[in-house]
Every structure is written in C-alpha cells, then in structure tokens.
Amino acid sequence: MSLTDKISMLMARPGGDNVQKDDVPWWMRLAGRALGTVGSGIAIFLGLLNCMGIVLLQVSCLIAGIWQMLAGFIVIVCEAPCCCFFVDYVQVLSDRMETRPYWNKAVLYVGLALPPFFLCFLSMSTWFGSGLIFATGIVYGMMALGKKGSMDDMRTSAANLEAGLPPTTAPRANLVPNEQPTSFTGVPRT
C-alpha cells in the first residue's frame, strides 16, 4: 500500500461515502469548474509577469510569482485535467479530488491563493491572479454549505423572530446528530 493510499484512507470519512451532494445546483458546479480552469490559466500567466519583478530586485515578488504559477498548475490539474494530458497521473489526481468533499477543495484553493498576497502585496497581477484562485475556493466553500432553507421555512422563522416566539424547531446539526441544548446553571456556590 502506497503512502498516498494510506493518507487518503485517513482522510476518508468513517462510514460515509465520498460522493458529492446532489443538492448543489448544476450552474454552481459549472461556475466552480469554469472559474477554476480560466482563473488558474490567468494566474499562471500573471505569475510569470510577477517573476519579472527580479528585474527590479524584488525577490519576494519572484517567490510570489513562482508560488502563483504552481498554485495555478495545481488548480488546473484538479479542475481540467485535459489541459495537462502530457503529465503522467494527472487523471488519477483529478479523479481523487472529485471524490473528496467540496470543503476539501475550498480549503486547498484558499490555502494556495493566500501566500502570494503576503509576499508581493502591492502587485496587481498578484491580486488578480491569486484572487481568481481564491474566488474558486470561495465558490467551492459555498457549495460545501449546501442549499439554504425553503421560502416557507425562512418566512416562518422570520415571523417567529418578529413576534418574539422561540424557534419552533431546533437548529439542525450536521456534525452531531444527538446535540443537546446548553443551559446556564448559575454561579457555583462555595
């Protein structure tokens, strides 16, 4: 068993299949994929422009440009493996990323996009190139949150809040199915 298989076994949710949720609209999945593909291509090009900062002796902008090109390549491998068919095992990595939950992609893309901002803050190519990768992470984060409530549920909840009534249903917890409400018992007596 290889190291990557062991790591993917550790990252898998126990007792759950890693199939994407069907409650995400098709246009949002398409927007995430399109923004990731186009944005990573632009980030690679603008990262190359950032590397020209070495002419002005800006080493931090050179490092930010290299990081931005690497981040763009990783995103394009995950989102559009057909653009990188010349690299071995690209399809395997892309298939593995497709089975992961949406929040994994969101964390990866946001984490890849942030370091160039801190290295070369005043460069517009950093803001635009890494900003597109960051926006892709935000779209995947919104997909991980899922659908909002129906119009009737929101209207009922708003009416109860306006009237000062307690909520009719307890909030639903996705992480803990047996959640109990907390209460304040007062200050302990000494």
TrEMBL record:
<dbReference type="GO" id="GO:0005768">
    <property type="term" value="C:endosome"/>
</dbReference>
<feature type="transmembrane region" description="Helical">
    <location>
        <begin position="102"/>
        <end position="119"/>
    </location>
</feature>
<feature type="region of interest" description="Disordered">
    <location>
        <begin position="166"/>
        <end position="190"/>
    </location>
</feature>
<protein>
    <recommendedName>
        <fullName>Calcium channel flower</fullName>
    </recommendedName>
</protein>
<keyword id="KW-0407">Ion channel</keyword>
<comment type="subunit">
    <text>Homomultimer. Associates with the dally/ magu complex.</text>
</comment>
<keyword id="KW-1133">Transmembrane helix</keyword>
<dbReference type="GO" id="GO:0005262">
    <property type="term" value="F:calcium channel activity"/>
</dbReference>
<keyword id="KW-0813">Transport</keyword>
<keyword id="KW-0966">Cell projection</keyword>
<feature type="transmembrane region" description="Helical">
    <location>
        <begin position="65"/>
        <end position="90"/>
    </location>
</feature>
<keyword id="KW-0254">Endocytosis</keyword>
<keyword id="KW-0967">Endosome</keyword>
<keyword id="KW-0406">Ion transport</keyword>
<keyword id="KW-0812">Transmembrane</keyword>
<dbReference type="GO" id="GO:0042734">
    <property type="term" value="C:presynaptic membrane"/>
</dbReference>
<keyword id="KW-0109">Calcium transport</keyword>
<feature type="transmembrane region" description="Helical">
    <location>
        <begin position="34"/>
        <end position="59"/>
    </location>
</feature>
<dbReference type="GO" id="GO:0006897">
    <property type="term" value="P:endocytosis"/>
</dbReference>
<keyword id="KW-0472">Membrane</keyword>
<dbReference type="Pfam" id="PF10233">
    <property type="entry name" value="Cg6151-P"/>
</dbReference>
<feature type="compositionally biased region" description="Polar residues">
    <location>
        <begin position="177"/>
        <end position="190"/>
    </location>
</feature>
<dbReference type="InterPro" id="IPR019365">
    <property type="entry name" value="TVP18/Ca-channel_flower"/>
</dbReference>
<keyword id="KW-0968">Cytoplasmic vesicle</keyword>
<comment type="similarity">
    <text>Belongs to the calcium channel flower family.</text>
</comment>
<keyword id="KW-0107">Calcium channel</keyword>
<keyword id="KW-0106">Calcium</keyword>
<dbReference type="GO" id="GO:0030672">
    <property type="term" value="C:synaptic vesicle membrane"/>
</dbReference>
<feature type="transmembrane region" description="Helical">
    <location>
        <begin position="125"/>
        <end position="145"/>
    </location>
</feature>
